Batch of 3 targets.
Target 1
Amino acid sequence: DNAADNQDSIHYYQNGEDEAHLDRLKMLDELKQAISDDDGQLFMTYQPKLHMQTKKINKVESLIRWQRKDGSWVNPELFIDLAEQSGLIVELTAWVVNTVVSQVADWQSKGIQMQAAINVSAQDIASPSFHSALVRTLKKYSVDPTLITIELTERDMIENEEKGIKALQNLKAIGVKISLDDYGVGQTSLGRLKMLPIDELKLDKCFILKLDESQKDQYIVQSSITLGHQLGFSVVAEGVETLDSLNLLEAMQCDHAQGYYLSRPLKAELLEQWLEEYYAKN
Ligand code: C2E
Ligand code: MG
Ligand code: MG
Ligand code: MG
């Protein structure tokens, strides 16, 4: 009986594995197609970042979305992971860069001065063509490099450290800004933090979501803001969901706040409407 049970569970398990494998292959294929067709399945959304001191919205983070042909949504973390594991991320990021830079140019032509952050992976930074492709795209749309921020997580920065740091320094040299995303949950030692060529620290949302209820989170966030400023970085909090948290961050002299309390990530046209409403009230 036991043996039969084992057989069954092994059989079931293997079937599950095969299915998951097939699903991933199918999804990867669809993702490739979605990038090359550029038929609207993939699109960018933009989440505003509030500059606390001036109450202006001068920055957004670009966040990718994928709605498949059958109408189903794929979680970005899932398909970004898939793209990273298959190497497709380089093509996907090229699509993202082109879309976001052209959007920034479009906003400029409408008199909306907006800086945009783009999330990239370790493989993008390691890729020798990333820098030249970004420069080419900025030229193509006549966008000032200082309007673009590259967001990288601690893990992405540390992978291939020496080469990665050199690549980031080269980006900084042409005016592109560098942000350390999800700060506080990765493995950046303070020694490394000191060495990284970054402009911005982005505090992970796990410290921000319950900021108004947690004394410990308040201690962590306050000391990170102070440390960030002393090291010469601008500090952003992601995951601001309540007015209380926003007020706390303002009192702690955090530079920018981003989160559902202000707005969810929006398509460009909706963001433009949101900005009009925001400035009508503020
Ligand atoms: P991330 O870069 O850390 O982005 C922040 C995530 O927090 C986003 O999730 C955003 O929608 C979400 N968020 C913003 N405000 C709040 C809030 O107040 N509360 C909560 N609970 N969540 C909030 P999203 O859009 O699902 O993206 C997840 C991750 O996928 C991103 O994390 C980033 O690592 C990756 N990603 C998204 N777009 C891209 C892209 O274009 N390229 C690459 N390489 N990665 C991307
Ligand atoms: Mg990010
Ligand atoms: Mg983040
Ligand atoms: Mg994240």
Note: The CA atoms of residues 91 and 133 lie 11 Å apart.
Target 2
Amino acid sequence: KREGRNSIRLFKTENQHQTMIDEAIMEAELYKALDQDELTVYYQPKLNVRTNRVHYEALVRWFSPVLGTVPPLKFIPVAENTTLIQDVTRAVVYKVCEDIKHTPELFKDAVTSINLSAALFEPDLIDAHFIQVVRESGITPSNIEVEITENMLMKDPIKGVEIINHLKELGFRVVIDDFGVSYSSLNYLRSFSLDGIKIDRSFISQIDQHHNEKDISIVHFIIQLAKKLDLYVTAEGVETKEQFDILTSLGCDEIQGYYFSRPLPLEKIKSTIHHFFDY
Ligand code: C2E
Ligand code: CA
Ligand code: CA
Ligand code: CA
């Protein structure tokens, strides 16, 4: 038994060691990737069910010639440990603005959201690596939405108010991503001038499984609360027609998920966008 425990510990240590090596390699490769412009942005269409308008979420993609496809959930945390997250953010914001500029037929009347890392939730950093990039591109801020998480706001609510007010004054939309996963207190919603919330996928994935009444009730409650507070509600991770139908009947404004479309490269969006209206 004792040996077993030791060997498990050894195994864990080796694993941790390997993780450190992996992260160091990834960090070095990411540094090169930024230099060699290996990052791209995919767009996931979102459907506003009231207006039938399509909006987008920009999601970074890294196809590394050395590491293969590295998912953002793997490399964003590594970037966040260093200042590389600043370069990644600038690269994403720059690409989104370029795409908006060069593809007005898709983006002119749409809102495209960009995920903001917690590591940039600092007035000076947002200014240097986000706002400034948009300004230089000449893109109207109202075409861009900033997705932030509850955690970011609640870590320092005073700073949160300052940042949100600044973004709003400039004309950006601001929404809460992954709504419902971290804070049971809803009081904070009153303190910030937000445009909307995105109900986390974990709630959505439950609502059609055998018509789970409790989960439907939670989503129903979130949507009603959002309406009362005049917030726009998006459901993320919608994969089935049943989920789509339940959410629209509950009054959800916007649907995002594989049911509607996966995140796609811009070229693909251009060639398939008319199909989205078949729903
Ligand atoms: P997120 O912001 O919650 O983004 C939604 C994630 O869910 C995306 O994964 C998207 O591809 C996936 N998704 C969309 N619809 C469905 C669905 O119907 N079913 C399922 N199972 N998944 C769906 P992705 O692109 O791998 O991104 C993962 C996370 O990485 C994002 O979560 C976000 O936190 C982060 N991320 C992605 N792009 C960026 C970026 O440009 N900057 C920053 N800071 N973070 C990013
Ligand atoms: Ca997001
Ligand atoms: Ca999300
Ligand atoms: Ca998420």
Note: The radius of gyration is 20 Å.
Target 3
Amino acid sequence: MIQFDQVTKRYSGGVEALKNLSFSIDSGEMVFLAGHSGAGKSTLLKLISGLERATSGSVMVSGHNLSKLRGSQLPFVRQHIGVVFQDHKILFDRNVFDNVMLPLDIIGFDRREAARRVRAALDKVGLLGKEKVMPIRLSGGEQQRLCIARAVVHRPAILIADEPSANLDRAYALDIMELFKSFHQVGVTVLISAHDETLMEDYGRRILRLKEGQFTA
Ligand code: ADP
Ligand code: ADP
């Protein structure tokens, strides 16, 4: 489902964020990505979601070689992926419902079906009943749930999250992890990064450990 073959990412400043990485993640797997700040976690996730391109090597996602795709084909591949961004990307001038509706608006969904999907996604993350609330009124944990609802509303096959538990107290962080597990349990391929490995250990899942752009044991 996700396959990196000898992937290197060098930013224009010259930093080599990823060095000759190879790994694969099967359909339906739940995998964690660990590493300190600067290890290359965000870069790896951005290569999967198509926000950055590999300098060399190949990145395969759902059968597409992202390094060979033309820009116009990228949105098509992105429809299979849900992303929870590190900086949230919540629109604070729109209410909860409209924030979650956004990806479906972009795809051009039928309005009634879209509204049903938005409520289903909000229900999954425990925010049903807060559709009209403005995001500024939500707690940190609720804002993170909003981001997760928005990431899954188009029913992606792959869900990736960049440090979704950062800035949350441990109890809230564990809640968020349980939420990701619930999507894994219905067949979604899940990849989550965190710098706190203790959050991952209880799950008995594969942990990819990055250090200075390379895997460690
Ligand atoms: P992590 O998510 O593990 O903190 P990142 O992938 O954000 O790691 O960063 C890996 C390395 O790449 C760091 O040295 C960082 O400074 C560098 N880097 C990240 N994004 C950029 C960018 N847009 N331009 C230049 N260097 C970057
Ligand atoms: P419905 O089928 O009415 O949309 P579900 O209860 O099956 O409702 O799912 C509720 C929400 O959970 C969906 O809108 C979606 O956000 C998420 N979801 C459920 N199953 C999947 C899946 N296989 N892939 C991605 N997201 C899913």
Note: The mean pLDDT is 94.
